[in-house]
Amino acid sequence: MSDDIYREIILDHYRNPRNKGKLSNPDVSIHDSNPLCGDEIDIHLRVEEDKIKDIKFEGRGCAISQASASMLTEMIAGRPLNTVKDITKDDILENIGLMNLGPARIKCALLSLKVLKLGMVKYYSDKDPQSAKKLTDDSKLY
Amino acid sequence: MQKVGINISKIRQDFPILKRKVNGNKTLVYLDNAATTQKPLSVINAIYDYYMNYNSNIHRAVHQLAEEATFEYEKTREKVAKFINAHSADEIIFTRNATEAINLVSYSWGRTNVNKDDRIVITELEHHSNIVPWQILTQEKDAKLDYIGIDNNGYLNMEDCNRYLQSDKVKLLSISHMSNVLGTIVPINEIIEMAHQKGIVVLVDGAQSVPHMPIDVQNMDCDFMVFSAHKMLGPTGVGVLYAKKEILNEMKPFIGGGDMIKEVYKHRTIYNDLPYKFEGGTPNIADVIGFGAAIDYLKKIGMHNVREHEIEITSYAIKAIAGIKDIILYGPLDTNHRGGVIAFNIGDIHPHDLATIMNDYGIAIRSGHHCAQVLMGRLDIAAASRTSFYIYNTKEEVDKFINALGEARRIFRI
Predict the structure, then answer these.
(1) Which residues of chain A are modeled with pLDDT < 70?
(2) Which residue out of B172, B195, B306, B371 is catalytically annotated?
(3) A67 and A14 in contact (C-beta within 8 Å)?
(4) Is the pLDDT of residue B285 over 60?
(5) What is the percentage of chain B residues whose pLDDT exceeds 70?
(6) Does residue B1 register a pLDDT over 50?
(7) Residues B209, B36, B212, CA angle at the centre, nearest 5°?
(8) Crossing angle for the helix pair B64-83 and B285-301, to the nearest 10 degrees
(9) Does residue B277 sit in the same domain as residue B368?
(10) Domains plus CATH for chain A?
């Protein structure tokens, strides 16, 4: 029920998103949207020694998509970029504390992860197309 | 119940789905009628009867089943023609939906009649189905696409209208009769007259208007009109293209294949007469027959009564919604110029979150961009919630919806 979904922490991240904004000179920027809802997320990354040095997101959409993006940026900051490929759907749902989202809303929660993974692939493709190809071959990314 | 010419509690008994419970034990409150309407038992039974008793392909075989199926299929064409007062049933083409009907016009009529530097005029109110086909055509032909704007209340900017229709380069005006988001009903007769004075052909997107008000295409004098069966009690998979016979006669076929031909030789074909020339391949026979039952149902109620009921329930809902704090209502407030569609936003609750909360209470509303992103851009919003009514909706359902809006405010702590 909605009282369980829209808990204080979700509303807090929705109304006070962490790491929201642009980055000057990002190493990679990527955008995607959910055609059904129109939710939009942009993620900007700065990478140093293969670690996520800085991450910012921009976006508009529902509380779930925006809170999920905000919480993802907190979860991922400082981690090695290539570990992004291992983040699963359940990791995200656990991170936002909504394990039982219905099929209609789960895409909202997962949009930012999709964008982040697209960003990771783009970053490696720009540097070394061969290794990026291996990355996409190896894992079921999305 | 409501003081109009229809008995809503009696009507509701004809719709089995309205009895079902959703989300545990909540009675379904279906307020997403602009997307698709529910189906009365008579429509469901007509489809069932076809498959149970006379399923067969039409127009070709001489056996009894084929004769019966052809008769029922063609009877629906007659019913549709009468329903919109077309001059002849030959002017009614069955498609998959209104979208396909617009595409038929853009591919067939458009490719022949629109050339480099010509202009096509549409409006900011349009559904994607009345935008994208014209983008494809104008890009292919190196032609131009112009948009008639709207004012802040959702009315068409008539100065824009007048200005854009002045150019001799304009070949087509393609315009929604009623907005699927704002509910705006445009002054269609006046606009068509304006266009015809300049010799401009007019396509009317009636997807939202034909199901909800009396329509007379001869009086309106539109050249094309499109609409969909499933938004007027009929099944999905059936759309209608109405066009004046003299225009259809000049048009090239859209889909080539069986049934649209008279004689086929190795390197040439003589096409079939109207309307079959535009219905290549086996059509959606069962659902066309189901659509016939839907038209019977609407005729029995009377389209004036449908419109009256929607004016009453929409006025009631607008009044109730407007009294809620932090509400922004979009579109005309005068129900003389608005159909039974209400788009709105409330506080900082995103429409998808609102729809999720409404669903807890068994209430089905729509949220998102409503396939009208150009309009969303004009309104400077990413999304809106939308409630939309039909003949079976009651004021009690509006009250439930209003209560749920209060719950949404509580859950979002606003």
Answers:
(1) 136-142
(2) B371
(3) yes
(4) yes
(5) 99
(6) no
(7) 25
(8) 40
(9) no
(10) 2-138 (3.90.1010.10)
- Under a CB-based contact definition with an 8 Å cutoff, are residues B200 and B173 in contact? yes
In this structure, are B53 and B186 located in the same domain?
Answer: yes
Residues 24-83 of A with CB under 8 A from B: 36-40, 60-64
Pull the structure tokens for residue B48.
Answer: 């069932």
Distance CA B84, CA B207 (A): 13
- Please give the residue range of the domain that contains residue B353: 8-37+303-411
Q: Which of B:132-161 have CB within 8 Å of A?
A: none
Per DSSP, B51 falls in state I
β B201-205/B239-243 pair status? unpaired
Q: Domain with B294 in it: what CATH number?
A: 3.40.640.10
Separation CA B242–CA B227 (nearest Å) = 9
Find the mean pLDDT for residues B322-335.
95
pLDDT at B29 over 50: yes
Q: Is the separation of the CB atoms in A63 and A10 below 8 Å?
A: yes
B28 and B318 Cβ atoms separated by less than 8 Å? no
What rounded mean pLDDT belongs to chain B? 96
Condensed to tens digits (0 to 9), the pLDDT of residues B77-100 reads 999 999 999 999 999 999 999 999
State the count of interchain CB pairs (< 8 A) between A and B. Answer: 49
Exposed e or buried b for every residue in B217-255, given b needs 16+ CB within 10 A? Answer: beebebbbbbbbbbbbbbbbbbbbbbbbeeebeebebbe
Active site residue B222: no
Strand ranges in B248-340 using DSSP code E only, listed in sequence order: 261-264, 269-271, 327-330
Asked if residue B229 lies in contact with residue B211, where contact means CB atoms within 8 angstroms, the answer is no
B287 and B345, same domain (yes or no): no
Summarised one tens digit per residue, pLDDT across range B330-344 is 999 999 999 999 999
Minimal C-alpha gap between B405 and chain A (Å) = 13
Query: ipTM of the assembly?
Result: 0.89
| Cβ contact, residue pair A2, B382, below 8 Å | no
CA–CA separation, B34 and B383 (whole Å):
16
How far does the CA of residue B36 sit from the closest CA of chain A (Å)?
17
**pLDDT for res B2:** 45
The span from the first CA to the last CA of chain A, in angstroms, equals: 27
Cα(B141)–Cα(B64) distance, integer angstroms = 48
Chain A nearest-CA residue for B410: A3
CATH number at residue B372: 3.90.1150.10
User: Are residues A40 and B382, on separate chains, in Cβ contact within 8 Å?
Assistant: yes
Which tokens go with B160?
């824009």
Is the pLDDT higher at B159 or at B23? B159
- As given in the structure block, the two tokens for residue B96 are 């998959």
B218 lies in the same domain as B176: yes
The strand pair at B170-176 and B26-27 is best described as unpaired
Question: ∠A97-A102-A105 over CA atoms, to 5°?
Answer: 80
